Recover the amino acids of this structure.
């Protein structure tokens, strides 16, 4: 029910009301600074990678893909740091449509409701304040519901898109060869992932307004329709054997009036995450045979339950002055007083390699090719960027229990 119920959102409305809400959400997202968003995504990716330690093993789902978007969203929404892990858990419970889905939906609605009340009283430079200040004049209830849709759809899309892209990179020699051989950019490769493994495989909640026939099937007025995005995109009658890299004619973002307004920010977050991951760990490979990978049992999301990987062990660079962890006031919990402070995230560097080299695993991709350098141009440092990287590094350390 939390995924299929009617809500006063741009998803569930048409006509003038849809245009009003769609304009509010679209204009709000357009105000997000693209350079800042890329820097935030890169800093979050670096902080996560550096937190893994030097043993050369990681689960990319639990230690990277699930954590990166919430780190970015807590910054965009100016949420308290401790709300990141909580937000992620609630969103996953809602989307998995399991026994905890309703409870998670109520709790998530309450968390966003409190955030909207705070921003209504004390607006700032963040997405929630911009949405509330839009000329469309959203009520608090409309703001909460549309924020919920934005967070659920945005988080799941980014988390699953990153994971599905890395999986294809590790199990598909042609896909990896196109990217590492320079025949496709990261952006092109990500479009192919949307064809083959779209992060949202089914989309709920559209109702027929009259009796009709569609695709040879009788549909009655009032029937709920589930849109099979993955089935549509993977139909060989649509694309045949053609190369899909760079082709944006898929339905992963929907189309027409209801096209997703967050596709550009999502592309930027995911592209930056993949570029940073490949730059830091060019010899990444699967730690288990490909056929042993398991998918989350969600009717909506196309998402891996885990993605264990191997890479050459490295020693993350340490800052000269250790960065203090957030206090109880900034982290929302008791001062952890760690013995080994987390390093400040820095600009991408080639990690210091050790003599250990992982052995090829069954079903894994070859490791003798190195991905191209990131396509983004170098950026100069600033005090604001340094503060952002310190905050994200500290949050990652706190989140990891260090």
């Amino acid at each position: 029910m939390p995924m299929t119920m009617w809500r006063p959102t741009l998803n569930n409305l048409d006509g003038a009301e849809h245009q009003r809400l769609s304009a509010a959400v679209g204009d709000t997202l357009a105000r997000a600074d693209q350079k800042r968003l890329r820097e935030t995504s890169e800093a979050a990716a670096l902080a996560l990678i550096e937190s893994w330690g030097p043993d050369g093993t990681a689960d990319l789902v639990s230690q990277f893909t699930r954590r990166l978007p919430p780190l970015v969203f807590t910054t965009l929404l100016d949420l308290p740091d401790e709300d990141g892990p909580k937000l992620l858990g609630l969103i996953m419970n809602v989307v998995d449509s399991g026994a905890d889905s309703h409870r998670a939906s109520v709790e998530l609605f309450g968390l966003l409701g409190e955030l909207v009340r705070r921003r209504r009283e004390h607006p700032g430079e963040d997405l929630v304040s911009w949405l509330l200040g839009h000329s469309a004049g959203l009520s608090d209830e409309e703001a909460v519901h549309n924020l919920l849709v934005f967070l659920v759809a945005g988080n799941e899309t980014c988390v699953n898109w990153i994971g599905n892209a890395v999986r294809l990179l590790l199990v598909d020699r042609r896909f990896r060869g196109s990217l590492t051989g320079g025949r496709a950019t990261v952006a092109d490769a990500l479009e192919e992932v949307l064809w083959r493994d779209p992060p949202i495989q089914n989309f709920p909640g559209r109702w027929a307004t009259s009796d009709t026939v569609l695709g040879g099937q009788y549909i009655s007025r009032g029937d709920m329709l589930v849109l099979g995005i993955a089935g549509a995109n993977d139909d060989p009658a649509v694309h045949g054997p053609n190369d899909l890299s760079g082709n944006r004619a898929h339905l992963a973002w929907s189309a027409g009036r209801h096209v997703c307004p967050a596709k550009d920010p999502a592309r930027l977050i995911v592209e930056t995450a993949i570029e940073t991951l490949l730059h830091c760990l060019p010899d990444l490979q699967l730690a288990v045979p490909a056929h042993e990978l398991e998918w989350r049992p969600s009717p909506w999301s196309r998402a891996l339950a885990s993605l264990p990987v191997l890479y050459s062990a490295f020693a993350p660079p340490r800052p000269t002055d250790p960065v203090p962890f957030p206090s109880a006031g900034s982290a929302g919990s008791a001062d952890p007083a760690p013995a080994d402070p987390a390093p400040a995230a820095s600009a991408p560097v080639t990690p210091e390699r050790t003599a250990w080299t992982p052995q090829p695993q069954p079903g894994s991709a070859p490791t003798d090719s190195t991905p191209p350098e990131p396509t983004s141009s170098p950026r100069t440092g600033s005090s604001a960027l340094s503060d952002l990287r310190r905050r994200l590094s500290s949050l990652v350390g706190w989140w990891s229990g260090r």
Summary: Confidence is low (pLDDT under 50) at residues 318-380. The chain is about 45% helix and 5% strand. The two ends are 38 Å apart (CA to CA).
